[in-house]
Amino acid sequence: xxxxxxxxxxxxxxxxxxxxxxxxxxxxxxxxxxxxxxxxxxxxxxxxxxxxxxxxxxxxxxxxxxxxxxxxxxxxxxxxxxxxxxxxxxxxxxxxxxxxxxxxxxxxxxxxxxxxxxxxxxxxxxxxxxxxxxxxxxxxxxxxxxxxxxxxxxxxxxxxxxxxxxxxxxxxxxxxxxxxxxxxxxxxxxxxxxxxxxxxxxxxxxxxxxxxxxxxxxxxxxxxxxxxxxxxxxxxxxxxxxxxxxxxxxxxxxxxxxxxxxxxxxxxxxxxxxxxxxxxxxxxxxxxxxxxxxxxxxxxxxxxxxxxxxxxxxxxxxxxxxxxxxxxxxxxxxxxxxxxxxxxxxxxxxxxxxxxxxxxxxxxxxxxxxxxxxxxxxxxxxxxxxxxxxxxxxxxxxxxxxxxxxxxxxx
Amino acid sequence: xxxxxxxxxxxxxxxxxxxxxxxxxxxxxxxxxxxxxxxxxxxxxxxxxxxxxxxxxxxxxxxxxxxxxxxxxxxxxxxxxxxxxxxxxxxxxxxxxxxxxxxxxxxxxxxxxxxxxxxxxxxxxxxxxxxxxxxxxxxxxxxxxxxxxxxxxxxxxxxxxxxxxxxxxxxxxxxxxxxxxxxxxxxxxxxxxxxxxxxxxxxxxxxxxxxxxxxxxxxxxxxxxxxxxxxxxxxxxxxxxxxxxxxxxxxxxxxxxxxxxxxxxxxxxxxxxxxxxxxxxxxxxxxxxxxxxxxxxxxxxxxxxxxxxxxxxxxxxxxxxxxxxxxxxxxxxxxxxxxxxxxxxxxxxxxxxxxxxxxxxxxxxxxxxxxxx
Lengths: 411, 373
Description:
Number of helices of chain A: 11
Strand content of chain B: 5-15%
CATH class of the largest domain in chain B: Mainly Alpha
Largest sheet of chain B: 4 strands, mixed
Shape of chain A: globular
Low-confidence stretches of chain A: 30-35
Mean pLDDT of chain A: 90
Shape of chain B: globular
Distance between the termini of chain A: 57 Å
Number of domains of chain A: 3
CATH architecture of the largest domain in chain A: Beta Barrel
Distance between the termini of chain B: 14 Å
Strand order of the largest sheet of chain A: 1-4-5-8
CATH architecture of the largest domain in chain B: Up-down Bundle
CATH superfamily of the largest domain in chain B: Butyryl-CoA Dehydrogenase, subunit A, domain 3
Order of helices and strands of chain B: HHHHHHEEEEEEEEHEEHHHH
Largest sheet of chain A: 4 strands, mixed
CATH superfamily of the largest domain in chain A: Butyryl-CoA Dehydrogenase, subunit A, domain 2
Structural class of chain B: alpha+beta
CATH class of the largest domain in chain A: Mainly Beta
Largest interface: A-B, 55 and 51 residues
Oligomer: heterodimer
Strand content of chain A: 5-15%
Mean pLDDT of chain B: 96
Number of domains of chain B: 3
Number of strands of chain B: 10
Helix content of chain B: 40-55%
Radius of gyration of chain B: 21 Å
Number of helices of chain B: 11
Number of strands of chain A: 10
Helix content of chain A: 40-55%
Order of helices and strands of chain A: HHHHHEEEEEEEEHHEEHHHH
């Protein structure tokens, strides 16, 4: 039992580190932000430049096959790169959906011609991709989606609405799942495409969240399709195989969704040590001590759960199901720590003041409800643990064995 | 990164699991309860034959000379099967104390006999229903003789020797006592888990030997408690996992309203929460095992974290296992109560959850920076 790299891993880490040091700046020890306040345009430009730099040096899409410009890095190498890159002040995020979810589906299902056209620009950061799955009436039950695709010669006519689309407002392309036939069973009537986000008939509207953020601040959008035309050549997989294709990308999403970022035990501990309560540090309050102990057990448990997963990958083994607990535990912990931070301000805890140490806790508290929903709600994740990890049976379903159009939707 | 047990250690764990299953699994704890015994003598003899009482005892004293990691995997299996034997008292406490603090002469005399089972050890810390601290210790030592009363001493009915924490001229000593001395009065104490036996042990000018340096007994016992916390955490996660497995099996087999009860989300989410709790406890226990086996300065924090987390997990899994079983879970016939009672006893045997939370936070306060996970 140890926390060391194998010699090969240490060598790879050193290579990552060497290149990063030559091309980026280390983060300040306390800083959690990648980039200060900047406009969306500035942020995109910086992010695209960084991606291009990585691409030219071969660090952009480590796990991709060699034929598409990757190095077929092992999972442990991807983790090592991620650990090292996270120590540097570099923009992250906007290419993750493309490289992690869209790229693999293009590789698996698109024609050679299309792969040639789209994969390289995606990898070098010229073109940004998004994922158009969720709909207003299809969240946890995403296969219940209702956006329509009708065949019209060599084209498809798309009508409907997508929602919670990250980055739709700056994306060039998107992967899209729609219903081509409501008269067959729910999962059988779906077909998968990719679409040019500049196509006539597409309207992108930012979602204003409970945090008050909208537009580039929220990153989430509604996307309306009004007689949007997609050539049949942009269909990925067979007609009716949309769900199968979507599952491939969702598997990749599960790997991508990790910890909830934001105020954690470290920040709660610092606040407890420094904040004064009636002449004594807050940490002297036994109610606070008990909660710190609980959060530490959760945070430390998640940290070492991750280490166990990495250990399995490091040995070339398939990790156990332990990582399935990460988001439930971390999102709820974030909400609870955010709440604690605000309470520490006592009668003034609600006041928003740019300089206040409570700002990050207020942000955590406001953002946490979203994290408990995004990428699988707490409830769906518990179902997944119960059914896939523990092997409990599915409940009876009212949507099986009947045509999609006959599935009940209201009382 | 290798936060995992080795293949040899996993093999040993698997052998231990098969051993406890073959020897009767939970039926041993039930037998001890029903027949009002102290221990399952047959099971204990076989554990000695396997060599596990000597797992940490160096070769030169005829033990197996293995590490704490081997002890952790055995502990998990003891916990899973709720084995009613004095293993924890004798191996996690008594043997460890001797390995760390006894002089050569004592080691030569006692360690080989712990391997063969002619000596069984236990430990005495608690003295009253209030929390025992260094300043309120009543058992005292004067001219090598002990006087006073220890309570809730596990396994004292079959133990031959005992380590005792006692106040001395130089603050606190850790003392070794031969329990066959006629000055000692040992009285059974009833407890809520009758698959374990506890005793009141009264010393009256009882001869004893010093372990380690005089005046350092309280530090020694804290260190032993930290070690034991990690080992008990493995017992607790073994028990928690067994209770979860039992709940899972019942949720699949039992029908209500025409469906398996495991198909209801109320049951699914309950069991998912049990799984989450066990997973966190297991990861924290691995951290504890690493700190213990590498003699890390992080042991006090790691031990407290493993202990609190494993205590929560075993208590949650054992109580919700009863709930999942409905009325059946409340009967003597079903095994649910065995886990429920053991989880409670293990949760307080080394000091309560709040005591360990306090230790955890005291150690956190000392750290300046935490490494982000």
